[in-house]
Specification:
This protein is α/β, with parallel strands linked by helices.
Length: about 475
């Protein structure tokens, strides 16, 4: 098993290296043939290599940040979109770098043609590499070990990635640990632990670790909190420290500075888009351009979030707070467009400048919806340990209709693992999310919130464990 994993990593590394090398060679050709002869600086041989090396470093950085090297891990379309963003950013940066050396705008035709060729090659490379990967490495055969809660949701999620995982059998933890341990050794490439008591989970984890068996586990809230613990070595035993505050003072200062600078720059850049959007909304039905709504931020403090109106004026005439559903008739035709490309969120830049929000953080929820979530999930209040954000971990790695429990775990992952680099990475990934269709997918029509209706006679495992302890 270990040898196969090493081979798999080596194959992905080789495929990635070949893909990046060909893109850099294309840039090197364009540099030597079209740009190096026209710049006003005299380059020795090493200077040319430095320019090409800088481009290679930029391309590698953005490709890695967007996930363009994750052949076999991400879907091929996701990998290609990552390649597209990385190439566009690297090429735009390089064009302005060349223009600075020319002391005027450099000819655009060579780099535009190069970009088109690179994008076409990236398309072929991604799908050819994905085909080769799937042909050589078939999907893993998994055993799902579950408790008494419904398993339809987790089966559906794994079913969306049949190229990587196939759950061939499901077994209830009530069958007994010994029976499950015998079953694990039969023919599976790994097991999935889904909502089982902590004691049983720990036993199976240690057993699989001892047998070198891969485990996929859906973490509970305490597990997510422990992910961000500080490791201490005060004496001869490891200590995990969970702090009483989320962000340190220096982190808050840096985060606020980034928010202000980026928000002011984006307000200037997007002002024409905001002006055109406002005019279209006003001319379409004569209603108000902006939509203000009470949301909650740091410490559950309420503020009014500002968005471009994408729904009818009487969207909530019954006074009931509800999320947008799939095919929601309340959304106007133009509103559907601005929601798809997230233009409706642009006025929130002023919320960021004011200090109510940050660029990255848990998306702010309405007080009424929070109250509904808290009734069945008191831990949902943990999301307000940091300032609400325009985008966040749950928006990058989840969807609009992701369940509150899953959103909470994603947001806690961000809170407990915060760093400036994580904020920058999520900002970059947010650009990719803007053109991902299922990221704006609404809830079902019978739902007012993202909380899914489940059998209430089945008690959550975490509550059962609390009672047992």
């Amino acid at each position: 098993m270990r040898r196969m994993e090493s081979i798999k990593r080596l194959v992905v590394l080789q495929l990635t290296t070949i893909g990046l090398l060909i893109q850099v060679v294309a840039y090197g050709y364009v540099w030597y043939k079209y740009y190096e002869p026209v710049i006003k600086l005299f380059f020795w041989g090493r200077g040319n290599w430095l320019v090409i090396g800088l481009y290679a470093a930029l391309l590698l950085f953005f490709t890695s940040a967007y996930g363009g090297t994750k052949i076999g891990y991400l879907k091929p379309l996701d990998v290609y979109l990552s390649q597209v963003f990385a190439l566009l950013i690297a090429n735009i940066f390089s064009y302005f770098q060349i223009s600075l050396m020319c002391e005027w705008f450099a000819p655009t035709k060579p780099i535009l043609i190069m970009t088109a060729i690179q994008l076409f090659f990236a398309l072929i490379w991604v799908f050819a590499s994905d085909f080769f990967y799937k042909m050589v490495f078939p999907p893993r055969q998994l055993l799902l070990v579950h408790g008494d809660r419904p398993i339809d949701d987790i089966l559906y999620k794994f079913g969306t990635r049949k190229d990587r995982y196939i759950i061939t059998e499901c077994i209830n933890i009530n069958r007994g640990i010994e029976v499950i341990q015998e079953e694990i050794l039969k023919r599976y490439d790994g097991i999935v632990l889904w909502d089982i008591p902590t004691n049983d989970r720990n036993t199976l984890m240690k057993y699989c670790y001892n047998k070198s068996i891969r485990v996929y586990m859906m973490p509970k809230i305490p597990d997510v909190i422990l992910m961000g613990c500080e490791k201490m070595h005060l004496f001869d035993t490891p200590i995990l420290l969970t702090r009483e505050y989320a962000l340190r003072i220096e982190q808050r200062i840096i985060k606020r500075t980034i928010d202000l600078v980026c928000a002011l720059i984006l307000v200037i850049i997007t002002s024409p888009i905001m002006l055109i959007t406002a005019l279209i909304i006003k001319l379409s039905d004569g209603g108000p351009v902006l939509y203000k709504q009470v949301r909650c931020t740091l410490g559950n403090k309420e503020f009014k979030i500002v968005k471009f109106r994408s729904m009818r004026v009487d969207a909530e005439k019954d006074g009931v707070a509800r999320l947008a559903s799939k095919g929601d008739p309340r959304i106007t035709p133009f509103g559907r467009f601005i929601r798809k490309v997230r233009i409706d969120e642009l006025p929130q830049l002023f919320n960021i400048i004011k200090g109510d929000m940050s660029f990255i953080g848990p998306r702010p929820e309405r007080p009424e919806i929070i109250e509904q979530y808290l009734e069945s999930m008191p831990e949902f209040a943990f999301r307000t340990k940091v300032k609400a954000g325009l985008a966040g971990y749950a928006q990058v790695y989840g969807k609009y209709n992701t369940t509150p429990y899953d959103k909470l775990k994603l947001d806690l992952t961000y809170i407990e693992n915060y760093s400036v680099w994580l904020d920058i990475k999520l900002m970059l990934l947010t650009l990719k999310v803007l053109i991902t269709p299922d990221s704006t997918e609404g809830v079902e029509q019978n739902q007012k919130t993202a909380m899914k209706i489940v059998d209430k006679s089945v008690e959550p495992v975490e509550e059962q464990q609390d009672k047992e302890s």
